[in-house]
Amino acid sequence: MNAAASAALSPESFSALALFLRADWVIKGVMLGLLGASLWSWSVIIDKLLKFRALAQDADQIEDAISAGRSLEEVAEAAGPEPRQALARLLQSALRTWYEARASDGISEAKAGLILQRVDRGLDGIIARESEQAEEGLGGLAIVATASPFIGLFGTVWGIMQAFQAIAVQKNTNLSVVAPSIAEALFATAIGLAAAIPAYMAYNKLSGDAGRFTSRLEAFADDLAGVIARRLSDRV
Question: Which of 104, 108, 156, 219 is deepest in the core (most CB within 10 A)?
């Protein structure tokens, strides 16, 4: 940077847009990649927050209906043939096995045990699929949270190298010579942190939400298995 360019520096020269436009292609690539990762992580965060809220509301609806005294059969029928609520799918799976058992000629103690195993397998399969869907996208958030600071650090190291190169070429250690390159380098780190911090916080929160949702499904499934077990014992 020559003397005229140095004199032309102003606060606007260090704005986010100015730093990006002045950066070389490596740092621009780092910045664009981090911005893309940040936008993607925010889309996942917002989508997951809305989905977990909807899942909680659906579960509350099913549990409130049962707590109000409605029979399991009534709740399952009200959910429709292809319910979107996870608890309703668990309920219909358990009742479907119960209907098949009730339609048989007789239920011995050994047969009752096999029926309960079928109920458990059906419920476990639904829980596994629901848990997988609840955790979808969280792995990507973890990658953004852990990798973004290092990618930003790479941009910083590259920018510092450019600053030293400017010193060597111009044989000038004046701060106005190296300040722009250093600012570009630090800006890359700032973008990396801006991408990583929300992703890290959201990952921890959403992982906890997914775990609590899975626990809720497991508790409901245990209650259903207990109900089917009592019905079977009455027919043995």
Answer: 156
Res. 183: pLDDT tops 70? yes
Residue indicated by tokens 């009742």: 95
**Residue 42 burial (10 A CB sphere; 0-12, 13-18, 19+):** middle
At 65 the three-state DSSP class reads helix
Type of residue found at 3: A
46, 59 contact by CB (below 8 A)? no
Alpha helices (H) in 79-108, listed in sequence order: 86-102
Q: Kindly state whether residue 6 falls inside one of the protein's structural domains.
A: no
**Residue 157 within a domain:** yes
Q: Kindly state the average pLDDT of the residues 76-95.
A: 89
Cα separation, 33 vs 16, whole angstroms: 16
pLDDT for residue 2:
43
> Within the chain, what is the greatest distance between any pair of CA atoms?
98
The region that residue 83 occupies, defined by phi over 0 for left and psi between -120 and 50 for alpha, beta otherwise, is: beta
Please state the pTM of the whole predicted model.
Answer: 0.80
Q: What is the DSSP string of 154-197?
A: HHHHHHHHHHHHHHHHHT---HHHHHHHHHHHHHHHHHHHHHHH
Range from 25-29, 71-75, 139-143, 171-175 that averages highest in pLDDT? 139-143
Residue 3 within a domain:
no
In a domain, 2, yes or no: no
Tell me how many domains the chain contains.
1
Q: Which pLDDT belongs to residue 27?
A: 84
Show the domain range for 158.
14-235
